[in-house]
């Protein structure tokens, strides 16, 4: 244990926030949550990724007497959190099966004498009788159950051991518990309450809006090229995650980005554990790595400076999309949630749904989920209300920070076009794919048309006024809206969907969005931090940070976040007192790195940095 790590003792949460963590003020409902725990209440906390959940139990842990036990599902995550705490001068340790006997004895001794403010334990270890007995014998101040949605059997992060955590209430009835998650839906929340906080808890739900994320959904055209252009134009040298539907796509995409001079690594369940770990470690400890991954990647990725999350394929649901995109911009600086999708994605995902062997109820739920996702993709207005309404949160729209707000799409009355398309699908026998249907609408002469005699149909050539791209767009939107469905044989044909009758009869109007392909449009590179990332001061501080991180064997952000470096450059402190004022510089870091940071700045100034001021 780091003997130098003696946290200042204080019983004032704000004082600890400022002195230990170096932050000016509490965010959202942090203060209320902290006060509830200090008063001995249980708490259920729903807060988006990056919202600042950890401080909600870390600060009470430092104020209440006794040790706080933090339960977290991933060993790597616990290690990182404990490293970060130690760097703030807080007494914390991890207890898990990977410790060697000597370190384990040390941790147990520290625990026994009450030297630790926080101990992080994986659920398996915690539930062992020997561990529980040890906890019986020491003074505890609270239990924090992180990633509490792991208790829900509905989600894909389900951990059976989490169900057994109900033993904590029985065995330690006087110790308050706090359960935290970034999963927002009601069902999960109720499940957490029932399983982990059956004796009651105060519930704190924060807004799930992530104002620093810019949501963009583009039309898939040449996806790899689009992705490359996006990264090259807007995210050179940044860390990002690209989500792909399959292992193969993850591999291919990584190889393609590599071939184009970027550093990209695949991550999926087909790689062995060692490779996966290696790629994940590089992503976390180096700058500018892009991970091309299946959904296997992400849980427990605590990296604060992920600048973009891209989807080359549709996610499974809005929940999944929200969670995956949520891994971008945890540090609060601008980040992009970027996606491209197209007609074939809808076909594929609807097909999967049609083939689902789940029971009726489950299928209905799956269908609702898919409709919500497609409605999000096809939205013509601000994306935030669509996203947040899904989590039963209101948003007024006009966020000014999504593609539809920045670049409002045109819409057009497509009632007539939709009728033509639907009748053409009907007349051709409800089994052909988009290409053929469009050929018929346009009155083309192809072998297929001749073979089936489709040039004799009443719909042959009725759509010649619109071009192929527009028809493609109409068909895609009809599929998204459910007016068309994939043919159940799975060969890419389409048939009429449930309620297209009103449309066909002309009793209903249909307004569609006019497609543009914003994803490839050249945009000016937007600085992600309010600092010139080319400036010598930025370079010098980053270099110093990287070196220090290597020496200490921690990720660079554990030393200082990008936001803190940017604030340092902005303020250009010349004394330790001035440096102490900066957000993210707590007392411990000031003692440890203050002189070095000032030296780096002085060196740059001497060399004549223009970024100053
Ligand atoms: P979560 O667990 O909710 O995803 P974290 O607890 O990791 O989020 O916090 C996200 C980031 O926000 C961290 O870098 C944390 O230090 C920072 N943070 C938390 N609370 C505050 C605050 N009150 N002021 C400034 N930064 C904060
Ligand atoms: Zn918007």
Keywords summarizing the entry:
globular, binds zinc ion, 28 helices, binds adenosine-5'-diphosphate, seven-stranded parallel sheet, six-stranded parallel sheet, disordered N terminus, 613 residues, Rossmann fold
What does this structure look like?
- The chain has about 625 residues and is of the alpha/beta class.
- The strands form four sheets. Strands 3-4-2-5-6-1-7 form a seven-stranded parallel beta sheet, sandwiched between helices.
- Helix content is about 45%, strand content about 15%.
- The protein contains 28 helices and 17 strands.
- The model is unreliable at about 1-10 and about 520-530 (pLDDT under 50).
- The chain has four domains: about 15-205, P-loop containing nucleotide triphosphate hydrolases (Rossmann fold); about 215-405, P-loop containing nucleotide triphosphate hydrolases (Rossmann fold), CATH 3.40.50; about 410-515, Arc Repressor Mutant, subunit A, CATH 1.10.10; about 535-610, HRDC domain (DNA polymerase, domain 1, Orthogonal Bundle).
The CATH topology of the largest domain comes to: Rossmann fold
What is the CATH C-level name of the largest domain? Alpha Beta
Number of strands: 17
- CATH architectural designation of the largest domain: 3-Layer(aba) Sandwich
Give the overall form. globular
Mean pLDDT: 90
Straight-line N-to-C gap: 41 Å
H/I helix tally:
28
What strand line-up does the widest sheet have?
A: 3-4-2-5-6-1-7
What is the CATH superfamily classification of the largest domain? P-loop containing nucleotide triphosphate hydrolases
| Amount of beta strand | 5-15%
Q: Give the helix/strand class.
A: alpha/beta
Outline the biggest β-sheet.
Answer: 7 strands, parallel
Enumerate the distinct ligands: adenosine-5'-diphosphate, zinc ion
Low-confidence stretches: 1-8, 519-528
| Total tally of structural domains | 4
| Helix content, binned percent | 40-55%
| Cα-atom radius of gyration | 27 Å
């Amino acid at each position: 244990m780091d003997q130098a790590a003696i946290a200042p003792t204080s019983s004032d949460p704000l004082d600890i926030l400022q002195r230990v963590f170096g932050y000016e003020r509490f965010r959202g409902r942090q203060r209320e949550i902290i006060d509830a725990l200090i008063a001995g209440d249980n708490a259920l906390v729903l807060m988006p990724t990056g919202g600042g959940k950890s401080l909600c139990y870390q600060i009470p842990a430092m104020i209440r007497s006794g040790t706080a036990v933090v339960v977290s599902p991933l060993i790597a995550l616990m290690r990182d959190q404990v490293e970060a705490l130690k760097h703030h001068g807080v007494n914390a340790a991890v207890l898990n099966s990977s410790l060697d006997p000597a370190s384990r004895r040390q941790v147990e001794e520290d625990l026994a004498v009450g030297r630790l403010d926080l101990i992080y334990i994986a659920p398996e270890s915690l539930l062992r009788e020997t561990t529980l007995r040890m906890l019986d014998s020491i003074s505890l101040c609270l239990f924090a159950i992180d990633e509490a949605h792991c208790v829900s059997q509905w989600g894909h992060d389900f951990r059976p051991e989490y169900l057994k955590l109900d033993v904590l209430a029985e065995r330690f009835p006087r110790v308050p518990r706090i359960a935290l998650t970034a999963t927002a839906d009601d069902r999960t929340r109720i499940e957490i309450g029932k399983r982990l906080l059956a004796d009651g808890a105060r519930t704190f739900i924060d807004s799930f809006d992530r104002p620093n994320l810019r949501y963009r959904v583009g039309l898939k055209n040449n996806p790899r090229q689009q992705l490359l252009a996006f990264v090259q134009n807007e995210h050179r040298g940044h860390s990002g995650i690209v989500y792909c539907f399959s292992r193969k796509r993850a591999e291919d995409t990584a190889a393609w980005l590599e071939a184009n001079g970027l550093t990209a690594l695949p991550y999926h369940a087909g790689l062995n554990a060692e490779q996966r770990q290696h790629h994940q470690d590089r992503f976390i400890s180096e700058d500018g790595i892009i991970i091309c991954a299946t959904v296997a990647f992400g849980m427990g990725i605590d990296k604060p400076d992920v600048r973009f999350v891209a989807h080359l394929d549709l996610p499974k649901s809005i929940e999944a999309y929200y969670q995956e995109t949520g891994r971008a911009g945890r540090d609060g600086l601008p980040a992009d949630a970027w996606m491209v999708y197209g007609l074939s994605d809808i076909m594929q995902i609807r097909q999967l749904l049609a083939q689902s062997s789940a029971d009726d109820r489950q299928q209905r739920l799956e269908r609702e989920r898919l409709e919500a996702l497609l409605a999000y993709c096809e939205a013509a207005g601000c994306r935030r209300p669509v996203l947040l309404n899904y989590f039963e949160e209101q948003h007024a729209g006009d966020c000014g920070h999504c593609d539809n707000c920045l670049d409002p799409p045109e819409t057009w009355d497509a009632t007539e076009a939709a009728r033509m398309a639907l009748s053409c699908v009907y007349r051709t026998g409800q089994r052909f794919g988009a290409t053929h249907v469009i050929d018929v609408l346009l009155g083309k002469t192809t072998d297929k048309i001749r073979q089936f005699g489709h040039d004799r149909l009443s719909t042959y050539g009725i759509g010649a006024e619109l071009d192929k791209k527009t028809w493609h767009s109409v068909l895609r939107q009809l599929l998204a809206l459910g007016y068309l469905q994939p043919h159940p044989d799975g060969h890419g044909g389409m048939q009429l969907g449930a309620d297209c009758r009103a449309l066909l009869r002309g009793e209903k109007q249909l307004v569609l969005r006019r497609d543009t392909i914003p994803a490839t449009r050249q945009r000016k590179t937007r600085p992600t931090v309010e600092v010139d990332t080319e400036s010598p001061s930025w370079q010098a501080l980053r270099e110093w940070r990287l070196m220090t991180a290597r020496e200490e064997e921690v990720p660079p952000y554990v030393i200082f976040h990008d936001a803190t470096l940017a604030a340092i450059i902005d303020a250009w402190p010349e004394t330790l007192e001035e440096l102490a004022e900066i957000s993210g510089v707590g007392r411990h870091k000031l003692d440890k790195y203050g002189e070095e940071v000032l030296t780096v700045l002085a060196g740059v100034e001497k060399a004549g940095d223009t970024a100053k001021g």
